Amino acid sequence: MRYLTDLSPLSSRDSSFPSRVTPGKKKPLYTPLSPHTAYGNAMIGIFRKTMTTLATAATTAPASAVVPRVSIPTNGVDYRNKIVLAPMVRSGELPSRLLALKYGADLVWGPETIDRAMIGAERRVNPRNGTIEFTRMPSNGGRPNKSLKESVIYRIDPAREKGRLVYQIGTASPELAVQAARVVAADVSGIDVNSGCPKPFSTSGGMGAALLRTPDLLVSILEALVKEVGTPFQIGISVKIRILSKPEETEALVSRLVKTGITGLTVHCRTTPMRPRERAIRDQLPMVARICHDAGVACVMNGDVTSRDQGLALMAEYGVDGAMIATSAETNASCFRTNEDGGVAPWRDVVYEYMRFCMESENRLGNTKYLLNMLIPGKDKEFKDAKLSKTYLDICRALKFEDLLPAAMRVDELLGLDEKWEAAPDTESQAEPKSKAVQNAKVSEAARAAGGGAVRTKTPSPAVHAGGPIRRSSAPQPTKVVQVDAEQPAVEAAITAAQTQAPSQVTA
Ligand SMILES: Cc1cc2nc3c(=O)[nH]c(=O)nc-3n(C[C@H](O)[C@H](O)[C@H](O)COP(=O)(O)O)c2cc1C
User: Fold this and answer.
1) What percent of the chain has pLDDT over 90?
2) pLDDT for position 384
3) Phi, psi for residue 430 in degrees, rounded to 5
């Protein structure tokens, strides 16, 4: 078994990542004609001509003959013909999203983030890996003696998520929704409103699925976002709902939502009281799709979609525009790969890639372990070992990812986990003092915590956008790793260096 070894630093181009224009080798919904044959070329010519004619007709024909389509804003993304990663609290952090993209997801939704959490967050660029981090100080729960350490509440990889990331917001207020969305609007392609979460922490505040019962409020949130964020930032606004138990109720709700200016609507085919393990109900889907299409809004289905191939088949069967995958991707993100391209990969391959993304992203260990628990089958010995691990080094050792050990040590040092190493690392660098760059990074973190204000030796992160239109062209483009000094450790550099040696051949 060979591991994929084409990872490069977060901030550099990764040719193994499907580009937005040519999304990998994934099969599109409708198999295109071969561009390599004369017949194919001729047919493509006819197709283009027909489309041009249709477009012209659309501008001149009477309204009744035109199939409407809400236009996609310049910095937005069309949800049509896409198989996408669902929003998932905890399971949808940056490493999981990169993993899904790696295996062919067309778009990724970030985890629901409550409006108040993002309002007032500081935006900065991590100089070691180029990721954008939104941070804030914890409220500290009124405990004056507890040391304050800022926490990263949202991370974005501007290079690899560009044009593919939808930010999901939890809100019950048009004003707060707008304030929060403005903080991230320049860095994402769309803002989605969570109107389906059935958990009490969400519904008790009037958010999530509670909004299904307060359609006036939901409509006002979407309209405010379209006007105050979608239009000035030129990104799409969308909503994710659940079906209501009576089809006519769903119909009435969707009919209102599609008139708010949204570009997409995702329908989770379960009612609010339904448990995740209950089978999705799809008989309302064609009705929802029809209402969306009549208004020119893309309709994405969700619920028991388990793979790209199945998603494409369901899209054709139910006449929807896209399909969203949650729990299957949580268990094995290679479900986004078609059977033709290899299908679902062995869990060890997926976990290896996941660990690399976690370390590159400097992901919080607790979160890394959370998804590891999903990715590693419970009966395997590695499951228990990884679960008990307290550091990245321990995890990589337990999984026998020898070539990742240097990177694991670096990230442990950066995150202050090295004190928990079970035994002295058995690598050449064990006798060395912490690298200068790791020390620099730690000093920066300490200075930041002590005095606020990021310490940077080079390019400063752009300030958090207070609001107002920001053109994407002038939006921050932190796609380059900013070298703090020549010895800048950059976890990814360690990974890349390790990758130049033969990766360990661990069999599944
Ligand atoms: C761990 C987890 C976290 C979730 N978090 C969110 C969330 O933040 N926002 C949301 O709209 N739905 C959330 N969901 C629901 C999923 O997006 C999705 O609607 C649901 O799991 C059904 O899809 P599936 O049948 O493919 O699992 C979450 C689901 C899981 C399993």
Assistant:
1) 63
2) 87
3) -60, -30
The verdict on residue 443 lying in a domain is: no
pLDDT of residue 267: 98
Q: Decide: helix, strand or coil at residue 266.
A: strand
The distance of Cα 363 from the centroid of its chain, to the nearest Å, equals: 14
- Gap from CA of 233 to ligand 1 centroid (Å): 27
Domain coverage including residue 392: 345-419
Look at residue 102 and tell me if it is in a domain: yes
Flag whether pLDDT at 496 surpasses 70. no
Assess whether 292 carries a catalytic annotation: no
CA separation for the pair 57, 263 (Å, rounded)? 22
Q: Ligand 1 centre and the CA of 86: distance in Å?
A: 6
Residue-by-residue DSSP string for 18-66: PPSSS-TTPPPSSPPPPTTSHHHHHHHHHHHHHHHHHHHHHHHS-GGG-
Eight-class DSSP state of 402: G
Which band of pLDDT confidence, cut at 50, 70 and 90, is reported for residue 34?
very low
Give the strand order in the sheet containing 132-136. 122-125, 132-136, 151-156
pLDDT tens for 374-391 read: 999 988 888 888 889 999
Pocket test for ligand 1, best of 193, 203, 241, 327 (most atoms within 8 A of CB): 327
Best residue among 83, 85, 89 to mutate for probing ligand 1, ranked by most atoms within 8 Å of CB: 89
Q: What is the DSSP letter of 144?
A: T
359 and 268 in a common domain? no
Number of structural domains found in the chain: 2
Residue 315 and residue 399 in one domain: no
Domain match, 230 and 362 both? no
Tell whether 130 and 264 lie within a shared domain: yes
- CA-closest residue to ligand 1 atom 31: 327
Instruction: Mark which of 318, 344, 370 sits at the end of a domain.
Output: 344
**CA 270, CA 291: separation in Å to the nearest integer?**
18
**Pick from 352, 302, 359: which is nearest to 332 by CA?**
352
Nearest CA to ligand 1 atom 1: 88
Whether residue 36 lies inside any domain: the answer is: no
Contacts for 356 with CB less than 8 Å, ≥ 6 apart: 7, 404, 407, 495
Last residue of a domain, one of 325, 344, 363: 344
Q: Residue 355 pLDDT > 60, yes or no? A: yes
- Three-state DSSP at 428 gives helix
Same domain, 356 and 283: no
Residue type, 221: I
Q: How much distance in Å is there from the Cα of 326 to the middle of ligand 1?
A: 6
Positive/negative CA dihedral, 378, 379, 380, 386: positive
Do 132 and 125 contact (CB within 8 A), yes or no? yes
Inside any domain, residue 137:
yes
